């Protein structure tokens, strides 16, 4: 049996993975409800998008298409992993960076 708070926050969690604008919309949607499942996935999605933009800026200076392709594939796999966790109603940390995202964005409830 699934926890009711997971089912309640599932839609917000899914919205948070739809671009960075979706993550910002999900933050505002979760302001009133304060759902822990939704907040967990908002922090994960926001971390993925912000680190993608920050690291992507520097990766873009490489002339190697293999480095940039590997970067895009890596972040796509992280995004899929988080998105599937939200769809399945699981609290899954993103590999390598998930715990850091939870610490950095701890003020997002």
Question: How would you sum up this structure, described in words?
Answer:
76% of the residues lie in helices and 0% in strands. The protein has 109 residues and is mainly α. The chain has one domain (4-104). Helix 1 (4-16) runs antiparallel to helix 2, helix 1 (4-16) runs parallel beside helix 3 (36-59) and helix 3 runs antiparallel to helix 4 (65-88).
Let me know the number of strands: 0
Instruction: Give the helix proportion (percent range).
Output: over 70%
First-last Cα distance: 25 Å
Can you tell me the residue ranges where pLDDT is under 50 for at least 5 consecutive residues? none
Most strands sheet: none
Number of helices: 5
The total number of structural domains is 1
Beta-strand percentage range? under 5%
> SSE order, as H and E?
HHHHH
Mean pLDDT over the residues: 88
For this entry, what is the oligomeric state of its chains?
A: single chain
Shape: elongated
Which class best fits the helix and strand makeup? Answer: mainly alpha
Radius of gyration: 14 Å
List the helices and strands and how they pair.
Blueprint: H1 4-16, H2 19-33, H3 36-59, H4 65-88, H5 98-104
A few lines on this structure:
The chain contains five helices and no strands.
What structural keywords apply?
76% helix, mainly alpha, single chain, 109 residues
